[in-house]
Task: structure prediction
Amino acid sequence: MDDPGLPERHFRNSGIPTVTDERLRQVSPLRRALVRPELGAICGAILVFVFFFMIAGDSGMFGPEGVQNWTVVSAQFAIIAVGACLLMIAGEFDLSVGSMIGFTGIVVAILSVQWGVPTWAAILIAFALSMAIGALNGILVIRTGLPSFIVSLAFLYILRGLTIWLSILTTRQTIIGGVRDAAEGDWLAALFGGVIFKGFFQWLGDIGVIDTFSRGTRAGQPVVEGIPMLVVWAIALIIFGHILLTRTKFGNWIFAAGGDAQAARYVGVPVNRVKILMFMFTAFCASVFAICQVMEFGSAAADRGLLKEFEAIICVVIGGALLTGGYGSVVGAALGALIFGVVQQGLFFSGAESSLFRVFLGTILIMAVILNTYIRRLITGERG
Amino acid sequence: MTETQPIIEMRDIEKHFGPVIALNGVSFDIRAGECHCLLGDNGAGKSTFIKTMSGVHKPNAGEILFEGKPLKFDSPRDAMEAGIATVYQDLAMIPLMSVTRNFWMGREPEFRFGPLRFIDFKKANRITMEEMQRMGIHLREPEQAVGTLSGGERQTVAIARAVHFGAKVLILDEPTSALGVRQTSNVLATIDRVRKEGIGVVFITHNVRHAHAVGDRFTVLNRGKTLGTAARGEISAEELQDMMAGGQELAELEGSLGGTV
Result:
């Protein structure tokens, strides 16, 4: 019963000694460090980097252009993974993310190119629409009590169908171009396209850290112009999501809603509101992805975002979240996205068959789920 | 103590669900600093009773007085605000979350940073540790997951939480039914501590021995009716057991089994 590690204890009503269980071992710092949702993703990220450094180190993958290449791809995954992560921790799925990406892009394009709405207004309307659909998704899940898997699967089809129909109805085709011209000089569009820190990268080019173009119209400019806005969005969303989840009251409610909704309701957590807001946030992230993509390509296509919902979920699971909700990490999901981007582009740089990427995906998904189940047992002390 | 005004008094409560009469005349009261046991077999109406008392159900007939005034709770949240805390058997805690996060769930302490507000984990962890020690639970660290605690410890965390947030009445729904002998003793000791702090404890159970160990008064619920209330010393465990099960048949069973069930 004697525990030198604690100062003297005070009881208002003593009489019964404190119960310390001598069978509880002191937990070593190593084990405590192991029991983190991000563990698998951290190891995975290190492994992936070492691997590609060895097989593709001299291919330019780790030169400025190469780094920009896989950073952008990873950032794309990260943007949708942050939304999917918070939603999954809150105990729900959204399979309509990919369709939402196509839908938002087409809405922006139709409004700005076909109807001549200012691009900033088109973007705001698209955000409002997609978040309203996200809310509808959430309300349906809450009201019907059906699994979000089914409800959002329905929206996967409804939204994709609507997007293609709308696009064909207004333009007779499924790709709408000319968005970039319409967005020229628009203040809000600038937040989703282009790059920042141009001056800094020019300076890096001038002093020779980054190669510069030696010929053509861009002679003298660095090969990497700056940090793409897509990457800025990804970093901002990761920081926002991480702080929201781990440091705020609302974050605690997200964990509670996914951990045990009924227990959370009993102590007054507004579980329904939390879940609906997370559906809206997932839709918001999908829209950020879509608008960045539209601004980059200068066009919208009705089939954009295919399978993105599953890729987002895989990132989140690699990042250590449990499919059953109540446990996970935004940083983990971001690392999952990084692993994803590095492998996808690394296989390209190393000249491997790109179809192998899917083999890798499936394999790493299984491994991540097994590891997560094991970590969950460590945390909860479950045996078996 | 027996002459003080009850915190909650329920008179002839009836509750129907369609054709099913769940409660058919229940009278019960709870005073500060006592442990009032409500005994009943499965299906006696214990759950309906708890939910009526904690504001989930509205009774069809009868009245509930809270501190002498007729009570109108529109939701469990109202009951909680008034100081009626319910600790449910399996729904007390979320195993994957830390003790601190569970303890403060729904009432997280915050500090301001400009326009933003964050959870004050320093304060939350400190108070959690203090409250757990007061209840006699030694935590390794407040960040450990509730899943690492035993069933009895989880009940205790839930009780400590209710006490910390100013419960006047604590309703415990079968807190010992899933526990081993040692853990049961710990929970009963916790009930004793809470009672000594002046909180009224409603201890719902179907285990006569657990009730007899800490109860000040006993009320038996059978087929939706209360069969009367007895104070400690006025009634034996065997008599309680008989009233709960409705007597004869169980007496014969016990005879063949050779002891009290």
Q: What stands out?
A: Residues 271-297 of chain A form the longest helix (27 residues). The interface with chain B takes residues 3, 6, 9-13, 16-20, 24, 26-27, 243, 247-249, 251-253, 255-256, 259-260, 262-264, 266-269, 322, 326-327, 376, 379-382 of chain A (CB under 8 Å). The domain at 34-374 of chain A is CATH 1.10.3470 (ABC transporter involved in vitamin B12 uptake, BtuC).
